[in-house]
Write the structure tokens for this entry.
Amino acid sequence: MWSVVKYVADLLFPRLCPVCGKELNAGEKYVCAMCLAQLPLTRYHTMQFNPMEQLFAGKVPVERATGYFFYERGSRHAAILHGIKYHNQPLMGEWLARRFAAELNGCGWLDGIDAAVPVPLHRSKMASRGYNQSEYIARGIAAVCGCRVERLVVAARRHETQTHKGQHERLQNTVGVYRASANAARYAGKHVLLVDDVVTTGATLLSCATVLKQAVPDLRISIATLAVARLQ
Ligand SMILES: [Zn+2]
């Protein structure tokens, strides 16, 4: 019965690949097999002191950092991130995060992680968007490695859009935006994975990691994002 409903729904509302626009077949979820195979993976988790780890080096102690695929504005695969972020497709983010986490888990990268901590959205942004995409990504990772999702960082004030700002301005712009939540202290001596949808300059993640470290000095922090922006 359910398969009939699904069949009719697919006829009425064909599910399309956000990258190539092709109709997805029954075995495909969110992104077609061809576009998925062509996803520009960073494979940062296989590199020593990878470019993402270099981004945080000397600024805040980070155990390890990685991102799943490269994001370039205007590229074919950019539609995936836009769908997750702006077009009400957070479940696509969760699904991709599961695939990413399975790869990370396979090489022990997620070993010892006690909780996945999403970068928060301020409640006014949450109200207009309806969801926090980073939370879905954190859920996908947590489901694979068997850890909890914990909201240990809170967005204390709204910050302006960062899109058109330079690196220094972005850093200034995040001061006072985040604070650690009261239950962060429960993670003293533990290892958390800070999760965001995309890393660009790293200012947002740096700011979240910094408030966590200030609140819980012996907290160990690693970072995972779904996408890594290639800066032009
Ligand atoms: Zn496709």
